[in-house]
Design goal:
two-stranded antiparallel ribbon, extended, about 500 residues, 18 helices, about 5% strand
Length: about 500
C-alpha cells in the first residue's frame, strides 16, 4: 500500500505500520519511465558480464603464466617459516643450545659426519641409545621424552605401495611388525581370485601401470597398485585356474545355457598346449578346461578352497601377533596371548572337518576320522587352556567367532560366482537369443555384450576391492595389529615445487 501523510507525522505512522507487520520500502531515486530504466539496467548488466568475462580470461592467463612460480614461492616461504620456528624447539642460553631428536640407526653416522663437517668441534653429539630395542621393557625405562620411539616405514619397492592402506587405520608402533608386507601379498591375490578373468585383468594391468607411472597422490598410487598387481593375479587365476575370458571358457563342451566357449564362438580349435596349461575339469560326462565358477560340481570345491585360504590367512595373522608379543615381552607371553589362539584355530578346523564328514558325507566315526576328531578336541582344549589365563571365559566365548572369521572367506568364491553369474546371463541374452535374430539382433546383441561387460567390470572393481580390503582389515589385522604409533617426521624441507636451479633474482623476487 502507499500511504501519504504529513512529514511531521512520519515517525508515528511508520511505527504503527511496523507494529501491523508492514515493511517500509524506499522509493527508487531517479526520474523517467520505468521501461527506460529497465533497458538501461539490462545494458549495464550485459556490459558488466562482458567485463567479468574479460577479467576471468585475464586471471586464467596470469594463473597459467605464474602458477609454477607462485607454488615454488609458497614452498620456499613455508620452508623458511619452518626454519624460523625451529629455535622454538631448542633449549638455548646466552652461550649454548641443546637440541634432541630421533634419527634412524642407518643415518646416524651420516648425521655425525655432517655436523662435524659443518661445525667442527663447536658441537658435541651425544648418542643416548645406539639402538632402541623392540621390548616394551626398554620403553618403560627410557626418559619420559624418549619413551615412544617413532615409526619409520622400511619396506621394499613393492610393499611400500601398501603403506597407505595401513596408514588409513593407524601408524604401526615401533615394536610392531608392519602389516604392509602381509597386505601386499594377500590383498592383490584375493582381488585376482575374485575377479578371475583374463579379459577383465588386462584393463586392470594397463590402468595400474599407467597410474604407477604418472599418479602423484597417495590415493591414486594405492589404487593403481591394487589394479596392477591385482590384475596380474586375475590374469593368472583367469587363465590357468578358471580358464576364462569375458566369463567364457576357452575350451570344453559347449552348452548354450551354461557354457558358451571361445572355441565354439570363433569356430576354431585351440592348440593342444593351450589346454594342457589349464586345470582340467570333468564331471558327469562333460569336460571343461578351467574350473567352472557356478557349476553344480565345482561350487563346493571353490567354497572349500576359500575356507582353506581363510584358515591359512588367519593362522599367519596370529603367528605375526605371536612374533609381536614375543619381541615386546617374551615367549611365554606370546604363547599365552597368541599361541593359544593358533592352537584353537587348528583344533576348530580339524573338529569341524571331522563333524562335516560325519553329518554331510555320512561317514562312520571310526578309523582315521575318529583319530582326527580326537586330535581336534585335544588341540582345541590345549588352545583354550593356553588362552584362559589371559582371556578367561572369553577364550571359550570367542570360539564361534573363529568359525565366523573362517567362513567369512567364502566371499572369495561368492564374489567370483556372482561375477560369473552375471556374465552367464549376459551371454545368454546377447549371444544365444539376440545373436540368432538377424542383422539387427546381432548389432543389438553386440551392444548389449559390450555395455554389459563394462558394467560387470566396474562391479568387479567395487566388490573385489572392498571385500578384499575388508578381509585384511577385519579378519587379519585385528589378530596382530594394535597401531597408535607416531610416524617418523624428520626436520627437513618439504618442498614439492622448488628446483635447485632457482637463481638469486628469483629468490629476491620471492622475498619481495
Amino acid at each position: 500500500i502507499a500511504v501519504f501523510v504529513a512529514n511531521a507525522q512520519k515517525e508515528e505512522v511508520s511505527a504503527i505500520l511496523s507494529e501491523a507487520g508492514y515493511v517500509e520500502l524506499n522509493v527508487p531515486e531517479g526520474t523517467g519511465m520505468p521501461a527506460d530504466a529497465m533497458s538501461q539496467t539490462e545494458a549495464d548488466i550485459a556490459a558488466n558480464e562482458k567485463s567479468l568475462e574479460e577479467c576471468n580470461e585475464k586471471i586464467a592467463q596470469l594463473s597459467e603464466q605464474y602458477k609454477s612460480f607462485i607454488a615454488a614461492s609458497d614452498d620456499l616461504l613455508a620452508d623458511r617459516v619452518r626454519k624460523g620456528e625451529t629455535p622454538l624447539r631448542i633449549a638455548t642460553t646466552d652461550y649454548s643450545y641443546v637440541i634432541d631428536g630421533w634419527v634412524p640407526k642407518a643415518d646416524l653416522q651420516k648425521l655425525q659426519d655432517g655436523i662435524q663437517e659443518q661445525f667442527g668441534d663447536s658441537v658435541l653429539v651425544d648418542v643416548q641409545e645406539e639402538e632402541r630395542g623392540r621390548s616394551l621393557h626398554e620403553e618403560e625405562h627410557a626418559e619420559p621424552r624418549f619413551k615412544t620411539a617413532p615409526t619409520k616405514y622400511n619396506n621394499g619397492v613393492y610393499a611400500k605401495h601398501y603403506e597407505y592402506p595401513v596408514s588409513l587405520i593407524s601408524t604401526p608402533k615401533y615394536q610392531e611388525i608392519d602389516p604392509s608386507f602381509v597386505i601386499s601379498i594377500f590383498f592383490p591375490m584375493f582381488f585376482g581370485f575374485m575377479v578371475g578373468d583374463l579379459a577383465y585383468a588386462i584393463p586392470f594391468i594397463c590402468l595400474g601401470a599407467y597410474g604407477l607411472r604418472h599418479a602423484k597422490s597417495k590415493d591414486f598410487r594405492a589404487i593403481a597398485t591394487v589394479f596392477f598387481y591385482g590384475g596380474i593375479w586375475a590374469a593368472i587365476f583367469g587363465f590357468f585356474f578358471f580358464g576364462e575370458m569375458l566369463g567364457m571358457h576357452f575350451a570344453g563342451d559347449y552348452d548354450e545355457m551354461t557354457n558358451i566357449t571361445w572355441e565354439h564362438l570363433l569356430g576354431v580349435n585351440l592348440p593342444d598346449w593351450f589346454e594342457s596349461v589349464m586345470v582340467y575339469n570333468a564331471h558327469h560326462g562333460t569336460e571343461h578346461y578351467g574350473i567352472t565358477k557356478i557349476g553344480a560340481a565345482t561350487v563346493g570345491f571353490l567354497l572349500k578352497v576359500s575356507v582353506f585360504i581363510g584358515i591359512v590367512h588367519i593362522l599367519i595373522s596370529f603367528f605375526i601377533g605371536f612374533l609381536n608379543v614375543n619381541r615386546q615381552h617374551n615367549f611365554k607371553e606370546a604363547m599365552l596371548e597368541k599361541g593359544g589362539w593358533m592352537f584353537s584355530v587348528v583344533g576348530v578346523t580339524i573338529l569341524c572337518y571331522a563333524m562335516s564328514q560325519m553329518l554331510f558325507s555320512h561317514k562312520d566315526l571310526e578309523g582315521t576320522l575318529l583319530y582326527l576328531l580326537i586330535a581336534g578336541v585335544v588341540i582345541l582344549i590345549a588352545g583354550v587352556a593356553l588362552c584362559f589365563p589371559k582371556e578367561k571365559v572369553q577364550a571359550i566365548l570367542d570360539l564361534p567367532g573363529i568359525v565366523g572369521n573362517i567362513l567369512s572367506y567364502t566371499r572369495l568364491a561368492a564374489i567370483g560366482m556372482s561375477i560369473d553369474g552375471m556374465a552367464l546371463a549376459l551371454h545368454y541374452i546377447a549371444i544365444t537369443i539376440l545373436g540368432g535374430s538377424g542383422v539387427v539382433g546381432i548389432i543389438f546383441g553386440a551392444l548389449v555384450f559390450v555395455v554389459g561387460h563394462l558394467m560387470i567390470w566396474f562391479l568387479a572393481i567395487i566388490s573385489a576391492g572392498l571385500h578384499g580390503l575388508r578381509l585384511q582389515y577385519v579378519e587379519s589385522m585385528n589378530k596382530f595389529f594394535v597401531g597408535g604409533g607416531v610416524e617418523y617426521a624428520p626436520l627437513k624441507t618439504t618442498s614439492k615445487h622448488l628446483v635447485n636451479s632457482l637463481n638469486n633474482s628469483n629468490i629476491e623476487k620471492t622475498e619481495a
